[in-house]
Design brief:
Blueprint (H helix, E strand, L loop, with lengths): L1 E7 L2 E8 L5 E5 L1 H5 L16 E4 L4 H4 L5 H11 L6 H8 L8 E6 L2
Pfam family, one: Couple_hipA
Protein name: Phosphatidylinositol kinase
Keywords: Kinase, Transferase
């Protein structure tokens, strides 16, 4: 299992996990979910429920991935399989992203 903290405007909003079977779980932290002043991190992950599951990386995070030659360069330089979307996300979405979301790897 791999885990990452999802930050919204540099504030921890939830936890993204890739389970051993390859599926994904996103969970809003309790304090974020219960605070009416905190927004949903995306339209596809609304605060109407606290936990989401998917066989594939959620579109919110998938759309943050590099494409084309940028993806090839990232994968080559970091020795990441091109199909390892979570690994690419962990590598590329740490600091400078388009939008308010960044990803922070959680090491066990």
């Amino acid at each position: 299992m791999r885990q990452a903290e999802v930050l919204y405007k540099k504030e921890a909003a939830g936890l993204l996990m890739q389970l051993d079977d390859g599926s994904f779980v996103f969970t809003y932290y309790d304090y974020w979910f219960n605070n009416a002043d905190k927004p949903a991190i995306s339209l596809t992950l609304p605060k109407t429920q606290q936990e989401f599951t998917s066989k594939y990386l959620f579109s919110t995070f998938y759309n943050m991935l590099p494409e084309g030659s940028n993806k090839q360069t990232v994968c080559f330089e970091n020795r990441i399989d091109k199909k390892d979307h979570f690994g690419i996300l962990l590598t590329t979405a740490k600091y400078d992203t388009i939008g308010a979301i960044t990803i922070k790897r959680i090491t066990n």
